[in-house]
Amino acid sequence: MQTIALTDQKTDRPPPRKPPGRVRRLWARMCTPEFYSPACFLLVFFIAWEIAGRRIDPLLFAPPSRVAEAFVDLAASGELVTATLTTLNALLAGFGLAVLIGLPFGVLLGQGSVFGRVLEPYINAVYATPRVVIVPLVIIWFGVDYSGRVFLVWLGSVIPVIINTAYGVRNARPDLLEVARSFQTPRHQLIRHVLLPGALPYIAAGLRIAAGRAVIGVLVAEIFLQNTGLGGVIQTNAAFFRTAPMLAAVMLVGLIGTLFISSVNVLEKRVAGWKTAGRAE
Amino acid sequence: MSKSAGPLDDAGIEIDGVGKTFRWRNKGVAEEVVALGKVDFTVRSNEFLAVIGPSGCGKTTLLRTVAGLIKPDRGEIRVGGRPVTGPGEDRAVVFQHFGLFPWKTVVDNVKFPLRMRGVPDKEAAATARANLKKVGLEGFERSYPHQLSGGMQQRVGLARALATDARILLMDEPFGAIDAQTREFMQEQLMKLWDENKKTVVFVTHDLDEAVSLADRILVLSRRPSRVRAVVDVDLPRPRWDYDVRSEPAFAEARRTIWEMLRSDLVEEEEGAGIHAI
Amino acid sequence: MRSERFSPRAALGRAAPHLAFAVVFFGAWELYGRSDDAQLPAVSAVATAMADMTADGSLPSALGSSMQLLVIGFLSAAVAGFVGGVLLGRYRPLDRTLMPFLSALYAVPTVALVPLVLVWLGFGLSGRVTVVFLSCYFPIMMNVYAGVRDTPPELIEVSRSFLVRSEFGLLRTVVIPAAVPFIMSGLRLGIGLGVVGMAVAEVYLRLGGIGALIAAYGATFRLDYLFAAIIPLPLLGLLLTKLFTLIERRADAWRAG
């Protein structure tokens, strides 16, 4: 095979000037079915939706052109930027607090005390409670404002952080603990140098779950607690059956959620790099 | 020499100019590797044939084409004179990775090929039990594969192949994943079973000692794209399990002949790799 | 780990810290709940409210209609998720074409879709069922997909070597049995999320089911009744998840460990 390729180049007309490597690679990538089959599907889907949406009811089944229009309108009026910032604010604050409180609490619970075992059913019960149903309680405890929204985000994401940190600390490698103990490592140094690094991969996985739940939490808060942010855009327009701006906001929510979770993923890869090779999950 | 065999009966295999090239795309770039160049060979009925060759030479590919699991690009394989178009009742495969269904019990694993042929459940169970007894696994019928050692799992694989009553047994490095002592014991068991119940066996291995101590003839393949490099007869009396085969001069002789061939291939490959690296 | 024989003394010893904590926890809650400016109802008040709602039939009937919603939504998601997962996991062109979009849709929280779904499908049972369906569908489908896609190819080869020829035969003998652990964990995740979806749909619409009860008591700030209505939900979620974990264990008896 190789020899044939060589003679081809020699005997045929001189090879055309090579296009820059990047363009060529992009072209090669686009020629794979991994690229063109979803691309074709998307095209067909959009066209079908456009036609069907216009035929049936352009208001109710907003076709892609209307959604794009709505997106531009929302962006031009500044509403989209404001809403996005509002959403991000509560999202990041709640998530940050969840990490700050969940980590130490998880380390505490993970150290094999009776305390951890006793608390577990209560934590599970809270974890299993859908957050929509505690919205009335949140109103009483925190009001409908910013603090209420942050609380809902926090509540959803703190528990996976706690559970995973505790799990990671509890499953610290006994052989390494023994090594540390043989050097008479004090308790706080043991946590810092053995328990936490060992638990890092689990903690990172917990953060990823927490990130997903934080996004859900902020939307629950914005739809059910106080109409604001991107959830508010969805909810307000739902009252008027205006699906075009709703879809625009839903897409933005999906994008923000994906970016948020994948940034946590990047963090996970960084932090837990030493373990990725042999991980089961 | 190998052509001197009489007319083929049902359990002979003719490998006629068989070649196989694997092609795939890597990030849009077509790549290929020629696994089998052009293999011509005839397996005699009821012989024990070992297939050996440098690692990655396509031994397993050859076995899988005979099994009908992959289709050759060139040439044809005939079993008992009839061309192979896919897996058939006349052949049974013993896999290197044992190939047991982890969700089935031992007896259900052995029953599997029979059930797939429409044998009624009761009859299949009786046959399965009889064959498990043959390989010494009585009492483990209701165990799951993960509860057994590697050697025991492969005995289940062997029992399953025997239960089909196929005239041809295709064994793909069957003892490759088993520890050395168990392997020797398994080889002895296989010899006994084969003496009791003659079948054509094609036994792929990378273990030179294993090939020589088990086989009537050894087919040596060259490195990729593989062809028949040589056929070596092993002149050791049978039954082979009741004396120390390895201390016989004929054993050492055959071993040395094959090792010289494999060694020269390895050396060439090393040198080839060296040139490419520079 | 756990010893097979049941010993009452050892069981009591294990339960003692739990009991002690429960007494302290609920005792403190009760005391706090009885104080004047309490923002939590006393435990006794919640219990009374629950008894009350059970006696007048409002809680059982709400639970009944919620369960109906959950069962229809979950079962349809289980069937659709199974079929979708098998098709996507087994047929590469379909996988390539649709998976990017399905993953994108999976990334959108279901809550964000609720208003849209209800606007499109109306406030009747079909809209609510669709919300539950969407909540359970993705975890089930994605798990079936992963299980089917990662079927060990060597086992497929074993099956083929023993004369299984049809695609259906391969699905039945290898692909689906090998995916059972994944299917089961998909169902377990799905039922948990289904309870959440059910609550979201009902609270959003404020009509019918336990969600409507919660929304109504929440709007009037009747905390004892609110708590009494909320508590069955996590219990239901935990119970169903536990149930599916047990089924999962049985189905996985063949697995090591």
Topology:
The complex is a heterotrimer of chains A (281), B (278) and C (257).
Chain A: H1 2-11, H2 21-30, H3 33-56, H4 64-76, H5 79-110, H6 114-128, H7 135-142, H8 146-170, H9 174-182, H10 187-225, H11 229-238, H12 243-271
Chain B: E1 13-26, E2 29-43, E3 48-52, H1 59-67, E4 74-79, E5 82-83, E6 91-94, H2 106-116, H3 121-134, H4 150-163, E7 168-172, H5 180-196, E8 200-204, H6 208-214, E9 217-221, E10 228-233, H7 249-277
Parallel strand pairs in B: 3-8, 3-9, 6-7, 7-8
Antiparallel strand pairs in B: 1-2, 1-4, 4-5, 9-10
Helix pairs in contact in B: 2-3, 2-4, 3-4, 6-7
Chain C: H1 8-34, H2 43-55, H3 58-90, H4 92-107, H5 110-121, H6 125-149, H7 153-161, H8 167-205, H9 209-219, H10 223-230, H11 232-251
Describe this protein with a few key phrases:
heterotrimer; A: 281 residues; mainly alpha; MetI-like fold; 2 domains; 12 helices; disordered N terminus; disordered C terminus; C: 257 residues; 11 helices; flat
Describe the protein in words.
The complex is a heterotrimer of chains A (281), B (278) and C (257). Chain A has twelve helices and no strands. By secondary structure, chain A is mostly helical. Chain B has a single domain, classed as Rossmann fold (3-Layer(aba) Sandwich), CATH 3.40.50. Chain B has helices at 59-67, 106-116, 121-134, 150-163, 180-196, 208-214, 249-277, and strands at residues 13-26, 29-43, 48-52, 74-79, 82-83, 91-94, 168-172, 200-204, 217-221, 228-233. Chain B is α/β, with parallel strands linked by helices and 278 residues long. Chain C has eleven helices and no strands. Chain C has helices at 8-34, 43-55, 58-90, 92-107, 110-121, 125-149, 153-161, 167-205, 209-219, 223-230, 232-251. The longest helix of chain C has 39 residues, at 167-205. Classes of the chains: A mainly alpha (281), B alpha/beta (278), C mainly alpha (257). Chains in contact: A-B, A-C, B-C. Chains A and C meet through helix 3, helix 6, helix 7, helix 10 and helix 11 of A and helix 1, helix 4, helix 5, helix 8 and helix 9 of C.
